[in-house]
Amino acid sequence: MAEIRTAQPKRDAGRGSERELADPRLQQLLAGLTAVRDGDFGTRLPQVGDELMDEIAAVFNGMVDQLSVFTSEVTRVATEVGTEGKLGGQARVPGVSGTWADLTDSVNAMAGNLTAQVRDIAQVATAVAKGDLSQKITVDVQGEILELKETINTMVDQLSSFADEVTRVAREVGTEGILGGQAEVPGVSGTWKNLTTSVNFMAGNLTDQVRNIAQVTTAVARGDLSQKIMVDARGEILELKNTINTMVDQLSSFADEVTRVAREVGTDGRLGGQAQVPGVGGTWRALTDSVNFMAGNLTDQVRSIASVATAVADGDLSQKITVDARGEILELKNTINTMVDQLSAFADEVTRVAREVGTEGRLGGQADVKGVSGTWKALTESVNVMAANLTDQVRSIAEVTTAVAKGDLSQKIRVDARGEILELKETINTMVDQLSAFADEVTRVAREVGTHGNLGGQANVRGVSGTWKDLTDNVNVMASNLTSQVRSIAQVASSVAQGDLSKKITVEAKGEVAALADTINTMVDTLGAFADEVTRVAREVGTEGILGGQARVPNVAGTWKDLTDNVNSMANNLTNQVRNIAQVTTAVADGDLTKKIDVDARGEILELKTTINTMVDTLGSFAAEVTRVAREVGSEGRLGGQAEVEGVSGTWKRLTENVNELAGNLTRQVRAIAEVASAVATGDLTRSISVEAQGEVAELKDNINSMVRSLRETTHANQEQDWLKTNLARIAGLMQGHRDLATVAELVLDELVPLVNAQQGTFFLASGQNGSTRLRLIASYGAHSTEELRTEVELGQTLIGQAARTRRPIIVDKTPPGYVRISSSLGEAPPVNLVVLPILFEDRTLGVIELASFERFTQAQRDLLDQLGETIGVNVNTIVASSRTDSLLEESQRLAAELRVQQEELQRSNAELAEKAALLARQNRDIEVKNTEIEQARREIEERAEQLALASKYKSEFLANMSHELRTPLNSLLILAKLLAQNPSRNLTAKQVEYAEVIHSAGSDLLQMINDILDLSKVEAGRMDIHPEPFALNQLLDYVEATFQPLTAEKGLTFAVTADQDVPRELVTDQQRLRQVLRNLLSNAVKFTDHGRVELRVRMAREEELPPGTSGPVVAFAVTDTGIGIAKENLSAIFAAFQQADGTTSRRYGGTGLGLSISNEVVYRLGGEIRAESELGEGSTFTLFLPLGRAESVPAPAAAETEQAVPERENSRETHGKRQVLVVEAAGTGLLSLLASSAAADLADTHGTVTVATVSTAEQATNVLLSRPHHCVVLDLSLPEGGAFAVLDALADHPDLRSVPVLAHPSRKLTPEQEALVQTRAAMQPLELLPSLDELRERIALHLSADQPDDVIPLTQPRPLPSPTRPGSDRSVHEPLRGHKVLIVEDDPRNVFALRGALESYGLDVRHAVNGRKGIDTLLAEDDIELVLMDVMMPEMDGYAATAAIREIPRFADMPIIAVTAKAMQGDREKALASGASDYLTKPVDAQELLDCLRRWLPEVRA
């Protein structure tokens, strides 16, 4: 709390009354009052020691405290009431009075009034929201709150009246079954009027529908999926019917599939079955995926129960359930058997009473059924009541009728009766009355009838007398007349009773009979109108599903009016119920189990509601448990989980048990697989999967076991290779630096003999004397003594001399006893195996090594000996050469000494020459020193050159072998992953397809890394060739923009390519290598930039930027990005191989770290330099400095001009020897020109400079083609105004240009007419339609690699045009592959499996041979093979030899042979084509590339 403080002024004792220092205090008071006025209650006045000012300060501070308390309390109450909604709060400000007390009371009064009003309104609104319409707002209010009070009270009155009427109608219709009720709500209008009107409609016809729906859903809830809704319906009821039927079908299909899978898994033991339920989604799809099994073994129990239940339903109570059962099934069995016993006893008693009363006429009998209760007891009592009542009624009727029969008409029936008995009672009593009156009047009536001439039949009743005799005579007179009238009336009445309102009374009648006829006819008309209206409403509501209809029958009253009113009821109530039921069942059918029926219902609708809600709960519990188990097993990897669904039975219980069984089986199998996979991951390759499995799991088990075996074999082979190379290098290192052959020989034997597990060895050195070569022993290992060994051997003598002469190793197995013996201090024994190894250098024998061993030499040991012979030969030759050099040096020194002696003699004899002799001596000494140094340097250089040559040889062989070994498994991996990702049989889930795509993507990345490593090896070996040539700068920039614009757009980056005005429009360098460097720099920029921009700027380098040692102009290519940047300390490391800025970069962005290393080496060979500038988090700039070459120093391509220069071409054809391609497209250097340039650049290393010319019109194309020959023409079929077909016409019209191959590509989709026209052209001239840019590039490269333009076989041969009557028979250049037979010559079964699977999926017939010789045999045995896929590296006969041998067979001279190999080193393609291959594919083979290649080379499909 702030205080206002100033320096306290001193008082002047002499002038205390004047208070000269009061102004500062007043200023404090004024500042405090100002703060209070501005609402700042935190200011306090300090005590200054002045009585008056301290009192003022105390009063001021007290006032501020009360104001602060008052403000905080009012704020609190306002916040609670107005913001937080907490009513009832009161402000409590202690110690205030006057205005502040009044203000506090006013605030509290306002809060209290507002609290009472709001609480009263809220109480009434809450009651209305809860359905209580008995409360009203009674609090006193004024103003707008009074209007709100009156409005809400009026609304409550109307809602109450409306609710009472709706409740009454709903109760009558839905609860009491009284139809016809109408809701009458007086004084309502608007929505309430509409609601009241909507309530008054009809749902009688919905009873059958609802009962049928309830029956089906009850059956579904009980697991019975055999029933469906058969009742006719329309509208929403039809949707509900279709929804429930669809749900039943889906559930039935789901149950069927689960039953089938469970039977296969649980009973037949056939794993791998999948439940396929089409058209389901949501929970059902998840359940289908999760469950997929079922093991119903309750068949005998259910069939026995069904048999007994069916017998009971058919009235057969003699059968009982006899099948063994336990648990709930046993309870059900006992319940049904007890029910059958009670039904049998009840039926016996009822039959007895019925027989006594109805057949034997013995009244008074009672049914006595022991031990029954509930419904059966009530039925028994009802039968007894019925029998007692019937006894009393029949006896009374019999008494009266007996009296009547005796002519006594004074008696009447007095017994109580209802229904038809009541009608009979009244009829008989009426009959007695009428007979009594009839007896008096019958004579008169008979006279009138007889007088009027209405005569009839005569009654002939024997044995009567008295009144009945007279009545009989008189009645027989009247009966004849009334017959026809009564029959007609009866016929109409019967029709009305049967619902036929089309008939009327037409018989002639008079008097009351005529009036009766008119009355009945009027009644029929009224009933007809009533029936039409009722039928209309019933049809709208019950049949068409149109709710809200009202029956309107004019001019009716009484019963008909009541019936009409009764019809207009109940449907609105049922609408909400049915719609709610439909909503829930639709959600269940869609797999949504979160919804329930919450509409109010009673009676059968309530039972239906309860049944469906119970079903949803059961399904929800079942789905939750199954989903939990599926999630634990399938997603979280927690095996062993079991689904626990309480209170389910029937189908759902069996499904739960099946889920648990599936989870258990899967747990055992996955754990076994995981155990083996973990062992393999830790390097243990001895384990295998032994768990029992079938189907796809068994295949997975076999595949993993096969993989482990393959890894074990590969690991063993790699270990042998490592052992071989390590020991080769170690022995070669031992021999370095030694000049004595004997020492070297001893070192070699000491190291080599124990290394190959031999026990004895000798080393012979070749020497030549007098023109003959002899082998001299210079070292031995483990021999008895040198005297026992032959020290010299002639060439060709013994095995030593023979091996030296033939220069081939000699191996002797199982040496005979006594041949040679290996001994030690403990004993001796003959060896088992001898190896005689020649030491060779440049096909010249330098020596022989012989080894003896107790054991056979392994293959790895033999390989070591074979390769070691060359290594030892190189070193021996070096030592021999060094020895010769030493001899020559000694001879030179001896001659120099003699020369010095002669010089001394000449000096003594000739003093004049002394000075010159001394000078000559010094020169000779200098020469000797120089010679010595030169000789030493020469020896060192020779040694280094030999070592480098050997290392280079090993490295080249290693890269070639590793390329082959890596690409071979990658081939099958990528092909099979691509096939799985395509999912041709549609039996994989979306997740499995995604796994396959990830495998294919990872394999492609691995292939790219292999290519990068091969490029790096070329750079390090100095084998990367540079081919400078002039090219247009715009062409390079267009290529960059076309390549990287889509990539930057996909990431939302801004991309710009700019070039300064002073940069030359034409550069001279290796364009393809420059593109490679720019691609790498821009790819890195895009990869490491998430937002912002990427820019390539081409400018001239400033003088201070020039690389050291560079003269002349230099172009700078600056690639700038706003990406993650590089730390200063890491800039120097990024250009090293396999290095990136830091470890997190590779983890986040991937990559091998080879790109910048390769780019740096390439730029170095181009004479330039790459510099990097970067700020961490700000971005980077990589600048490529490239010296400008001189165009005149490099031969310029003859046909690289643009279309504007074409008319100025020289007409001579002096460039006949160069390879040229012509591009015809609208843009000067468009997409097709870039594509052709890219293909041409790839061939520059092997075929020299390739010229690409671009034109845009038919005339220009003709001029260029006539000026010099071209290998092919690349044509854009989408040229405007039919320009493409004008080019084709120009080529076809000129005889010299008809044979020029045309590669046509549509940049836009062709119309059917254009496609037909292209097909017509292709039938008449060498035209190929290539919609794919990859295929177009491949064909351009193929045409340019041919020696002559006509050497390339076209994709499609000219053929007759299709019949005009079969427009659908046109076939594109992509002919179907089905029906062709292809031979795969491949030794790797994995590649065979992958290629066969890929080809057979497109309908090809595939044959296989394991090597070249078998392939030739297969070709000779089967005449209908159309194409051969030939691997290169195979045992016995490789692909080169096999291809050459096939070409030597005349009938296979034109057989398409595609070389497919993992060897991707420089020159491999040319070697394959030179051996006779038609085309060349590198492994891993891309599936689409393989198919395109097959389409190019396969002949047309046979009809």
From TrEMBL:
> Which residues in this protein are found as 4-aspartylphosphate?
D1431
Q: Where in the cell is it found?
A: Cell membrane
Q: Which Pfam families match?
A: GAF_2 (PF13185), HAMP (PF00672), HATPase_c (PF02518), HisKA (PF00512), Response_reg (PF00072)
Transmembrane helix in keyword set: yes
Catalytic activity reads: ATP + protein L-histidine = ADP + protein N-phospho-L-histidine
Q: Does the keyword Phosphoprotein apply?
A: yes
Q: Where is this region: Disordered?
A: 1-21, 1196-1218, 1348-1375
- UniProt GO MF annotations: kinase activity
Domain spans labelled HAMP: 25-72, 112-164, 204-256, 296-348, 388-440, 480-532, 572-624, 664-716
Enzyme nomenclature, EC number: 2.7.13.3
Keyword terms: Coiled coil, Kinase, Membrane, Phosphoprotein, Transferase, Transmembrane, Transmembrane helix, Two-component regulatory system
Question: Ranges for the Response regulatory domain?
Answer: 1381-1498
- InterPro entries registered for this protein in UniProt: CheY-like_superfamily, GAF, GAF-like_dom_sf, HAMP_dom, HATPase_C_sf, HATPase_dom, His_kinase_dom, HisK_dim/P_dom
Q: Cite the SUPFAM superfamilies for this sequence.
A: ATPase domain of HSP90 chaperone/DNA topoisomerase II/histidine kinase, CheY-like, GAF domain-like, HAMP domain-like, Homodimeric domain of signal transducing histidine kinase, Methyl-accepting chemotaxis protein (MCP) signaling domain
Domain spans labelled Histidine kinase: 961-1190
* UniProt feature coiled coil, ranges: 885-951
Q: Where is the composition biased (Basic and acidic residues)?
A: 9-21, 1206-1217
Q: What is this protein called?
A: histidine kinase
Q: What is the species of this protein?
A: Amycolatopsis deserti
Q: Species lineage, top-down?
A: Bacteria, Bacillati, Actinomycetota, Actinomycetes, Pseudonocardiales
